[in-house]
Design goal:
CATH class of the largest domain: Mainly Beta
Helix content: 40-55%
Oligomer: single chain
Distance between the termini: 38 Å
Largest sheet: 5 strands, antiparallel
Order of helices and strands: EHEEEEHHHHHHHHHHH
CATH architecture of the largest domain: Sandwich
Number of strands: 5
Radius of gyration: 21 Å
Structural class: alpha+beta
Number of helices: 12
CATH topology of the largest domain: Jelly Rolls
CATH superfamily of the largest domain: Regulatory protein AraC
Length: about 300
């Protein structure tokens, strides 16, 4: 194989591209319930919209800007626009994911400029993980559940009710959720955004047989320093993350194309089919052929 084929994408990337969000209604707000964490959200990603996660059950963890948070039932997580994040399940993780464009609260912010402080001042006065000991925490959960119900039923004036509930949620977090004087917030990892270009290069060149030395050279760091930076910021080693990216792409191709499994393995950077099958089952708990068979059954 010509190792020069995949060295650079045709156009040098500037950053990881944001994940697109499609709104189900004219209001820029959506809520969905996820069971487990799909491969696409195990990869490092970001979006411009604001996100509120309510952990309905189970356990897991997420990495936000290089900070790792353990997740359990009852937790509330705030994710700001442009925050690089990824999540993993450890045991039957169920999450209500609320996403919204801050522009939907433009009228409210005319009268309360601090309404979005819980997002804007993360790492300063607020943390991604809302303090469960804060006053009104139970009310925050009730609001999130009510917003979900309103979105599902869509009774008359549901959009106004959701806007009002979201405003109250943010006001309560702003009032009660700020860190106490002298209490330090987790420090955002300084190198996380510097890795955006590198990670996109990896995503666009999955078939290239990257070595640790080559990846480190793209960041102008020594392999040891680069590995330490990447591990701290992303939560896994560079080559392990590359394997996750390759396997995630393999799932996409298995579900969306009729390519042979051996061709998909090669296209995603695996030179050995048995190694591809082993790593695939290790990460997803099923074989590539089982994923392909599930797709075939759905088409019948």
């Amino acid at each position: 194989m010509d190792r020069n084929v995949y060295t650079e994408p045709q156009e040098k990337p500037k950053a990881i591209m944001p994940d697109p969000v499609c709104w189900p209604t004219p209001m820029p707000y959506l809520v969905s319930t996820t069971e487990g964490v799909s491969p696409s959200f195990q990869r490092l990603h970001w979006h411009r919209e604001l996100e509120i996660n309510y952990i309905r059950g189970g356990t897991g963890f997420c990495v936000i800007n290089g900070i790792k948070y353990q997740l359990q039932a009852g937790d509330i997580i705030l994710i700001n626009g442009q925050d690089l994040h990824r999540a993993f399940e450890t045991d039957h993780l169920v999450i209500d994911v609320h996403m919204f464009d801050p522009g939907m609260l433009a009228m409210e912010m005319r009268y309360d400029h601090d309404l979005l402080r819980p997002f804007r001042e993360q790492g300063i006065q607020f943390t991604n993980l809302v303090n469960r000991d804060m006053p009104a925490y139970d009310e925050l959960i009730a609001i999130l559940l009510n917003m979900k119900e309103e979105m599902e039923v869509r009774a008359p004036s549901y959009a106004s009710v959701i806007r009002a509930q979201l405003t109250r949620f943010l006001a309560l977090v702003n009032r009660h959720g700020a860190l106490a004087e002298g209490e330090a917030a987790p420090v955002k990892h300084r190198g996380i955004h510097a890795l955006k270009e590198l990670i996109l290069t990896m995503e666009l060149n999955l078939a290239y047989p990257w070595t640790l030395k080559e990846l480190a050279e793209l960041t102008h760091l020594s392999p040891s320093r680069f590995s330490a930076l990447f591990q701290q910021a992303v939560g896994t080693s560079p080559l392990d993350y590359l394997i996750q990216l390759r396997l995630t792409q393999a799932v996409h191709l298995l579900e969306s194309s009729d390519e042979k499994i051996i061709d998909i393995a090669s296209e995603c950077g695996f030179r050995n089919l048995s190694n591809f099958n082993r790593l695939f089952r290790q990460l997803f708990g099923v074989s590539p052929s089982e994923i392909r068979n599930q797709r075939t059954k759905k088409k019948q």
